[in-house]
Amino acid sequence: MDDRLTLARERYEAALFGGADDGLDAADRALDGVEADLAVARGRIRHARYLSAQAAGEQPAEDLTELALFERALSLYEALDDSRGAAEAQFWVGCFHQVVRGDLTGTEALFARSRDLATAARDDLTRSYALRHLAFVAQHAGRAAEARATLAESTQLRRDLGFTAGVAANLVAQAYLTAEDGRPAEASALLDEAATLATEAGAHAVAGWVSEARANLSSLPEA
């Protein structure tokens, strides 16, 4: 059992049987943390279902419950002064708007806040995600140099963490940016590494992205 659930049960029993109700506020805070974690977990599952349907060629409708779960988690984490949890929930709120709703302009502030919270909490994984999606914002806005630097920072964090599948995913995005710069040979090398890492990590979906990128970039000329 989660330690926070154990604490809540103990504080309940202390109040019920011992008349010590001074621990009930701590029990509420513990349960708020559990609820926030569960909301993020449920929201991620809904997001995965959306992406799976999209990958299968469907056009899934947006799931407002997904957004509500992430927003509820964010509210709870903020009330708990949990910057690590808030960083993750803020990222997922931004991800819903960017990935599901296609907002590549209005999400910059959301991902920037997630990045800053993750930096404060020393949560390099969430920071790597926020930076990845900030790179997409910069790319969409025509800020190519910023997009490359931001994505490279995300990739380095993932290398340091040993997050191999995440590195492979980022290398695919870096290959597109490199090809747009007129350097298809370098882009191809990035895709070669991405393919190797995806295979090592068993990241079959990312391997598919590599193949798709090769097809999309094969006709681009050298600068």
Describe the structure.
The protein is an all-alpha fold. It has a single domain (3-161), classed as Alpha Horseshoe (Serine Threonine Protein Phosphatase 5, Tetratricopeptide repeat). Helices cover 81% and strands 0% of the residues. Helix 4 (83-100) runs antiparallel to helix 5 and helix 7 packs antiparallel against helix 8 (164-180). It is elongated and about 75 Å long. The model has no long low-confidence stretch (mean pLDDT 96).
The largest sheet is: none
Q: Estimate the global geometry from the Cα principal axes.
A: elongated
Unreliable spans are: none
Q: What fraction strand?
A: under 5%
What is the arithmetic mean of pLDDT?
A: 96
Would you kindly provide a brief summary of this structure?
This protein is an all-alpha fold and 223 residues long. The chain has helices at 3-18, 24-55, 64-79, 83-100, 108-121, 124-140, 144-161, 164-180, 184-201, 204-217.
Short descriptors:
mainly alpha, about 80% helix, Serine Threonine Protein Phosphatase 5, Tetratricopeptide repeat, 10 helices
Q: Layout of SSEs?
A:
Layout: H1 3-18, H2 24-55, H3 64-79, H4 83-100, H5 108-121, H6 124-140, H7 144-161, H8 164-180, H9 184-201, H10 204-217
Helix pairs in contact: 1-2, 2-3, 2-4, 3-4, 4-5, 4-6, 5-6, 6-7, 7-8, 8-9, 8-10, 9-10
